[in-house]
Amino acid sequence: MTRTRFHQELEELKHRILAMAGMAEQAVDLAVQAYSQRDIAMCQRVLNNEPAINRAEREVDEFAVDLLAMQQPMAIDLRFILAVIKINADLERVGDQAVNIAQRVLHLVEYAPKDLPVDIPAMASKVRKMVRDALQCFIEGDADLAKRVLEADDEVDRMNKEAFANLSACMQDHPDSAAQALDALSIARNLERVADHATNIAEDVIFWIRGADVRHHAGQTASRI
Amino acid sequence: MGTAVEVRDLKAWFGKTEALHGINMSVESNHATAVIGPSGCGKSTFIRCLNRMHETNPEAKAEGEVRIGGMDVYDVPAVDVRRRVGMVFQKPNPFPTMSIYDNVAAGLKLNGTRNRTTLDDCVERSLQQAALWEEVKDVLKKKSGASLSGGQQQRLCIARALAVNPEVLLMDEPASALDPISTAKIEDLIFELKQKLTIVIVTHNMQQASRVAEYTGFFLMGNLVEFDKTEKIFTNPSDKRTEDYITGRFG
């Protein structure tokens, strides 16, 4: 009763979602680079690439639903498909956040550069590492690495709060910089949301591998996961 | 609720071959327990030990303890055990020349019941419990058991088993020879019957196990590898061998 074809299809599902993950990751990288370099063309590429991510999301969902209906998966296979469906939604949202960042950058470049009290590249670097690690733990089925992604989210949250406090103060002290500060504030919030999606992906990997629901600290502390 | 069947250190043999290597299981009352596993794993042998059907094979023997409501099945005559523990097989086996009525009444008559009203009431009640009454009530004595469809025959066999008011009903792949509609009827029936008795069902169909049973035991090479709530077995089993089997990685 070995289900060779079904397991090949699960591999195919994994390939497809990884291809989509590559697109979402690249969108964030491009958007962050566009911010650092104030590059309109890069922003445009992020916007142009979004429909492909949305299309990939629909295709992955369709494939996953077909497998649920046709193959009636059990245990780790069932958890894998459920995790893929959720990760798929998170990746699509990561793509949306990249678009939001690109739109803010397009607005920001209309103004003269300002020295703002926020280190977006530093925050972006942490967030990108979280996304990379979340995908890596998905590729390898590594629940321990997934746990480290959850821990990294606290640092990004802290950076976002700090950005909020500093940029709010900046807006009050320098009203002429309010527009740029508001864009930077939005970008920091978008990055923080990307980190949340990376956290969700890591939680889904833990669910897939260990069958444990760790969302919202569901009755467990990180050390007991 | 409590325990309907308590199995301790149950071993079974066919000749010199040990088919069960010391099974321990507590079957909860008024619930369905599914027994799954690859062919030859001992699952049918296991349930056949619960009502001493195993020993109807002259080469076979069993050892250990099977307690049903306090009675050790190996301490009392087999006939008494089978009155309390009914069984339904993979292939429907109505008595072919008997009418539908006589098929259902057969067990009671064998036990000495002759009163017409008692028999009539019992036949109607059993056929209703088996969800067959509406389909056959007008031809009870005109049609033979063998003239019914496969799905109806299986429900007739269930009615026959229910007629003697068993505490436990053993089902050995009861729907594997049936079409999807008849299968769904049997599954609905299992759901209803759980209110009154305890069910142990052997099935090759894992979706069926997950649909009808609250508990599932996975057998492999004569051992009970894992026994747990069905939802645990099918979403996150504890033993790698269970997971490999139910995900189709071996078998």
Descriptive notes:
The complex is a heterodimer of chains A (225) and B (251). Chain A is built from six helices and no strands. Chain A is mainly alpha-helical. Chain A starts with a helix and ends in a 15-residue tail after the last helix. In chain A, 40% of the residues are buried. The C terminus of chain A is likely disordered. Chain B has a domain of 169 residues: Rossmann fold, CATH 3.40.50.300. Chain B is built from ten helices and ten strands. In chain B, helix 3 packs across helix 4 and helix 4 packs across helix 6.
Question: Care to give the gist of this entry?
Answer:
The complex is a heterodimer of chains A (225) and B (251). With 225 residues, chain A is mainly alpha-helical.
Attribute tags:
heterodimer; A: 225 residues; mainly alpha; 6 helices; 0% strand; disordered C terminus; B: 251 residues; alpha/beta; six-stranded mixed beta sheet; four-stranded antiparallel beta sheet
Secondary structure layout:
The complex is a heterodimer of chains A (225) and B (251).
Chain A: H1 4-37, H2 40-71, H3 75-108, H4 120-140, H5 143-173, H6 178-210
Chain B: E1 3-14, E2 17-28, E3 32-36, H1 43-50, E4 60-68, E5 71-72, H2 78-84, E6 85-88, H3 100-110, H4 116-129, H5 133-136, H6 150-162, E7 168-172, H7 180-193, E8 198-202, H8 206-212, E9 215-220, E10 223-229, H9 230-235, H10 240-246
Parallel strand pairs in B: 3-8, 3-9, 6-7, 7-8
Antiparallel strand pairs in B: 1-2, 1-4, 4-5, 9-10
